[in-house]
């Protein structure tokens, strides 16, 4: 989780101006635009779409491994002559 600070100038009733820092917790820094290229454009931790694609790729990988082991041919027992 990313914590970003926002500085604000506040003027009190007595006319004295001071700065106050406000910390906010967010999933990503909303103040900046991210320009991704390559595979990072589709799989990243900064955008909702990038996170969704990472989750879907993980689910697809797990499903693929399960299907591989379920569909692989079974070994046949050796036939012994008696």
TrEMBL record:
It is found in: Mitochondrion membrane. The chain crosses the membrane at residues 50-69. InterPro entries: ATPMK (IPR009125). It is a single-pass membrane protein. Its main location: mitochondrion. GO terms for cellular component: mitochondrial membrane. Keywords: Membrane, Mitochondrion, Transmembrane, Transmembrane helix. This is Up-regulated during skeletal muscle growth protein 5.
């Amino acid at each position: 989780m990313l914590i970003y600070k926002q500085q604000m100038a506040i003027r009190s009733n007595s006319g004295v101006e001071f700065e106050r820092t406000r910390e906010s917790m967010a999933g990503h820094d909303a103040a900046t635009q991210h320009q991704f290229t390559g595979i990072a454009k589709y799989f990243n931790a900064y955008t909702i779409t990038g996170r969704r694609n990472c989750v879907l790729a993980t689910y697809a990988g797990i499903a693929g491994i399960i299907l591989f082991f379920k569909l692989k041919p079974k070994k046949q027992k050796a036939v012994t002559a008696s």
